Amino acid sequence: MSKKYIKPSHLALSVGLFSASFSGSALAAGELHLYNWSNYFPPTLLELYEKETGTKVTIDSYASEDDLLAKLQAGGGGYDVIFPGASTLGIMVEKGMLANAGINEMENFSNLLAPFQTIAGDENRKYSAPYMWGTTGFTYDPASVPGGNLEESWKELFEPRDELKGKIAMLNEMTDVWNSAAYYKGIDKCTEDPAEAQEILDLLMAQKPDVKLYSSEGTIDRMIAGEVPLHMQWNGAAHRVKAKKPDVVYVYPKEGTSFWVDNMAIPKDAPNMDEAKAFINWMMRPDIAAEASNYTGYSNAVKGSGEFLKEDLKADPAVNTPENYSDRLRAYKSCSPKSKDLREKVWTKLKS
Amino acid sequence: MAGRLSRTKIRALLIGPAAAVIGIFVVIPLMLMAWISIQGRDYSGGVIWGELSGEAYLRMIFERELDDSLAVNFNYVLIILRSVWLSFLTTVISLLVGFPTALFMATRTPKWKAILVFMVTLPFWTNLLVRNYAWILLLRDHGAINGTLSWLGIISEPLPLLHTQLAVAIGLTYSFLPFMVLPIYASLEKMDLRLVESAFDLYATRLMTLRRIIIPLAVPGIVAGCILVFVPSLGAYVTPELLGGGKTLMIGNLIGLQFGAARNWPFGAALGILLLALVMISLTFYALKLKNTGGNTQ
């Protein structure tokens, strides 16, 4: 964004890159190309899969699901397996961007926990299988909050105690923030009622002076460095904070805690369709899913993977959701355009 | 006659590649952006091709009420004004810091000039993102600045430096300062120092010399520097995101939001066109100004 002078050498370089991008799509058989978030797939599994099947696996990473969607909308990239979240998955299914891989008929499909055998947008799991799932709650450091204990409620975040005012960090995610505020106010997160949207906006505007920053990046370091005592956070990140600060508490707010699922799916024009299907089936094996969880710090959806998990994961309630919290979990819902529009308006007003 | 013809042909051939690059990488994308901004919105990203709509431009100032009537909405205008204000502030600070720097550089010996120019360009060896992250380390509560101040006993509570508009202004100034220094240096370097000596001979004070001789001669550089700082500041994305703490949007972030989470491509494209228009207006303004002052000094 700050390039002012374009030197001839730069120009030559960009023309070279431009022509190179046309010639890079010839792919041989026995290969598999994954496209995933960065740091979200264990390198050990790549090696193991190559060893077991002889298929050579490569991996590319994206910084946001919007990048993933934009890349596929712009026409591929030659990827065989992608890892979209629920809302992106829904759009991809609706737009016919995915291959009907018949995942629900795969050998290892029965290994999946029942709640994950379906998902909004791909109810029969024809196009997708779950990879990791997690929750959006908040984390606090007991040493830095009054009394060393907070209620298990969004109230602590949205209407903070005086001692915590100005010390709160929020995720900079429109949907996550909107949903949590809706749970706290007891409003349907897909509401189309402007009056209810106004209530959410009022809550967020009143909270804003108490918020130190909105950011989804570096949440782990921020908690470890003690820059904020209270951080809206994803549970896997909370688990990684605990590695350095074992005392921190991850809260599943009682009004409702979003849980999200990242999925594996195959683009319609994937060059290595058979390898991609075999790979997804392989990923539903308990020992393999456990290995992925051990690396990412998030839960998987495969039955019997528990015995292969690392001890610290099993012991951490942030990752291994306690049974009595299960009624607090709220699944993804696909909202109407009208509701999405309200959400966006509220977010822009909050930030203007 | 034949020679002249072939010369035109050669000229066309020589201009051809540059024209093709500009056409493919600037004109066509811009037309695409303008076209997208008047298409219907596809709520899952992208646009409904062929469905013409002016909704994206209406949205900048008006919002739809529940019954579809229009009401005035200043949110986006506010974001745009803030962007202009922050860019203006950045330009002024850069000028205040950059002009003395450039004057100092231009009056050194040739050997020192080379070293100083090299030092001004040194930050560009590092990625913009990394440079902005470095400011996070300096400005944060337990960072270098607050750490030093509290060690000296000047403050007991850390000053809120990071995640403020001030932090954004600092970050932008730091990022774009070389673009101010270098053009001013270029115009001052060409300056005939004998003019300054003559001014002193004619009993001009230092301030008068600066005002009447040096600054008028530096005007082309100052104008170029102001453009080079103001324009990229206006579209800044990384700095407000990292140093502003996500509390306040600038127009760059607003556009990013439309193509990302909000999935409103036509509106994003329309804002892009607006940004372009703002840049064009400021460029025209400066160009006119340059023309006027250029006429006065000669």
Name the features:
heterodimer, A: 352 residues, alpha/beta, D-Maltodextrin-Binding Protein, domain 2, 2 domains, seven-stranded mixed β-sheet, three-stranded parallel β-sheet, disordered N terminus, B: 298 residues, mainly alpha, MetI-like fold, two-stranded antiparallel sheet, 72% helix
Spatial ordering of strands, largest sheet of chain B: 1-2
Strand content of chain A: 15-25%
- What class do helices, strands and sheet pairing of chain B give? mainly alpha
Helix-residue proportion of chain A: 25-40%
N-C termini distance of chain A = 23 Å
Greatest contact between two chains: A-B, 36 and 39 residues
CATH class of the largest domain in chain A: Alpha Beta
* Radius of gyration of chain A over all CA atoms, rounded: 22 Å
Secondary-structure element pattern of chain A, one letter each: HEHEHEHEHEHHEHEHEEHHHEH
CATH topology of the largest domain in chain A: D-Maltodextrin-Binding Protein, domain 2
CATH-scheme architecture of chain B: Orthogonal Bundle
Folded structure, characterized:
The complex is a heterodimer of chains A (352) and B (298). Mean pLDDT of chain A is 86; it is low at 1-29. In chain A, β1, α2 and β2 form a beta-alpha-beta unit. The radius of gyration of chain A is 22 Å and the shape is globular. Chain A starts with 7 loop residues before the first helix and ends with a helix. Chain A has 352 residues and is α/β, with parallel strands linked by helices. Chain A has two domains: 25-133 and 260-321, 3-Layer(aba) Sandwich (D-Maltodextrin-Binding Protein, domain 2), CATH 3.40.190; 134-258 and 329-351, D-Maltodextrin-Binding Protein, domain 2, CATH 3.40.190.10. Chain A contains 13 helices and ten strands. Chain B is mainly alpha-helical and 298 residues long. Chain B starts with a helix and ends with a helix. In chain B, α7 packs across α9, α8 (193-201) runs antiparallel to α9 and α11 (251-259) packs antiparallel against α12 (265-297). Chains A and B meet through α3, β6 and α13 of A and α3, α7 and α11 of B.
